[in-house]
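Lab notebook: predicted structure, single chain.

Context: the supervisor wants predicted structures on file for every construct in the current expression panel, including those that have not yet been purified. This is the next one on the list. No modifications to the sequence; it matches the entry in the shared construct table.
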Amino acid sequence: MEDLTTDQIIGIATGYRNMARALNEFQVRRWPEFTHEQQLDVNAYQNSLLNRAHDLQSLLVRPAFKYPLDIATDIVQATDTARNSLKIIRNLTVALNVGAIMVALASYVARANLRGIQTALRELRELVMLEEEK
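Prediction complete. Output recorded below exactly as produced.
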């Protein structure tokens, strides 16, 4: 098992921060459509992603994997895909689910839970693909 490198950590943490920003931008664009509970949910997603980014960069969490380069690349790509999908998703519930899956992914990364990471990546891919087909 190898720790993620500094560059990999920076890439993942930057992705989390960018995703939190994208959720905020989505929230602002679609503000009237949100219920109060959905506002709270998306705010919690943003906070969670920012906290995970901070934990990674401050080395409070030091995940290790058998193939860290592959894992880091997959995480960064998935984060970019999720962030970009928020620009085209029309369904508010789907967008909130993208945010929830990203929070789950960040949690699995922090615990170096490979199976959880793979599940979150697969669910995110499936959700985004379904929305792109519409």
